[in-house]
Amino acid sequence: MARQLAEAGHASVAVDLRGHGHSDKPDTGYDFATISTDLRALTAALGPGFARPILVGQSWGAGVVLDFAVRFPELTRGIVLVDGGLTDLRDVFQTWDVCWERLAPPPLVGMPRASVEAYFHSAHADWPTRAWRARWRISRFGRMTRLRRG
Predict the structure, then answer these.
(1) How far apart are CA 51 and CA 63, in angstroms?
(2) For residue 132, is pLDDT > 70?
(3) Looking at the whole model, is its pTM more than 0.70?
(4) Which of 76, 17, 79, 78 is nearest to 51 (CA)?
(5) What number is the average pLDDT over the span 51-64?
(6) Separation CA 138–CA 144 (nearest Å)
(7) In terms of Cα–Cα distance, which of 65, 64, 58, 67 is closest to 79?
């Protein structure tokens, strides 16, 4: 998508939010206020071409984008919410424990690499393998050992 935007004369940036991808993974600061402030600092650092961006967020990122637009409407040209952004988890789940059980990532540590690959190919067939594999260490015995930090 970024290539098509660039060919049409539109600048775009893909952002690894705090705790995601190659961004820092501090122990705190995962609330919407902090993440929105991070995005405000980023758009300011990117310069005038990103002064009022159209923000796109998927899943949790959709909630972040929505929060940013509410907190900083003067900095937002528009938003696109994909698979999220409007769900209040308290309306969907009776307790936080039930929510965590349903939404937590699968326990992959110790699983054979082949089993993990089969899981991602069946559950997320549209994800490129590098999208999830780059975040994991694999033991010399072919088992998932831990999530990479940073």
Answers:
(1) 20
(2) no
(3) no
(4) 76
(5) 88
(6) 5
(7) 65
